[in-house]
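Suppose you are handed only these lines of text.
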Amino acid sequence: MTSEKKLKLAVIGGDGTGPEVAAEGVKVLKAVAGLEGIDYELADFDYGGDRYLKTGEVLPEGAFDELAAFDAILLGAIGHPEVAPGILERGLLLKLRFRFDQYINLRPVKLYPGVETPLAGKGPGDIDFVVVRENTEDLYAGVGGFLKKGTPDEVAMQTAVYTRKGCERCIRWAFEYTTKRNRRKRLTLVAKTNVLTFGHDLWWRTFQDVAREYPDVETDYNHVDACCMWMVKNPEYYDVIVTTNMFGDIITDLGGIIQGGMGVAAGGNINPEPGGTSMFEPMGGSAPKYTGKGVINPIATIAAVAMMLEQSGHETAAERVTRAIQLVTGTKMKSQAAGKMGYSTSEVGDLVCEAL
Ligand code: IPM
Ligand code: MN
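From them, the structure of the protein bound to manganese (II) ion can be written out as follows.
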């Protein structure tokens, strides 16, 4: 997409505090679009727990066609106390990721200035890497079943699915991203080849094959358990990590906490193909107990908007938002924790707008 093209953004505020943080993301988008001359169009969608309880369906027929007309979706949060776990996660979040083939889940782990990390002696210079998580396969494929369910002989199977195409496109994107990022130019494959000797062997061989096309990128391999250890001990070692869906899910929560918590961590579900619809979200949940109190941190959602701008070709605007976030965390906010920011949710949004 070029910057002359109109940026079409669908907003799904979702459940709990989702709409509150999404509103701040939209506020910052409007402000930066004005400053950078970006032509945009916004549309709100009321998908989430409340609508599901009213209508009995998570996503109505036609939702995909409608959303497919947008370049990107901004998702606040999903998770409703009256809806059984799994229904909204599978029926909305995972469905959108799969249906729009958002095969990259991009999760930067970046410690902003002024933000506290639980890692002793580490600062913003040490914690700045990116996890590229495969987003459509693995244990998330939903392949499996029960045998003799509910009996003492019950068997449950859940199969991890890995395809050459699926891992190759993710690995290649990660090499491209590492090149473009142009920092240490180091890409680490994180997997578990010593135990998952079929699926992760495919990942390993594919990684070696694709690496030959990128001689300027230094490559490395970590088993996932060792990676958890190094992320805590030597986060500065990492530049870009590429990993499978399930391991990526787990290590990015670890990444989230070392960058200051779920109030800060943002992710992008990206379909990099021309005409693809990507989805950007704060990594935190819907935090029902904080709903309507104006205490939740919108920084992660604003960072998700910056990612959306970067991925849609508006790099200058993205950098502008990122710098504004850093000014606000570094010089204004008292904490990144809900209720302890020193400002309300919408005041933080205003501060970022002023800092643009
Ligand atoms: C995430 C979440 C989701 C995932 C859940 C809600 C299905 O944990 O985005 O990391 O496992 O991918
Ligand atoms: Mn997760």
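What can we learn from it? The chain has a mean pLDDT of 97. The pocket of 3-isopropylmalic acid (ligand 1) is lined by residues 89, 93-94, 249 (CB under 6 Å).
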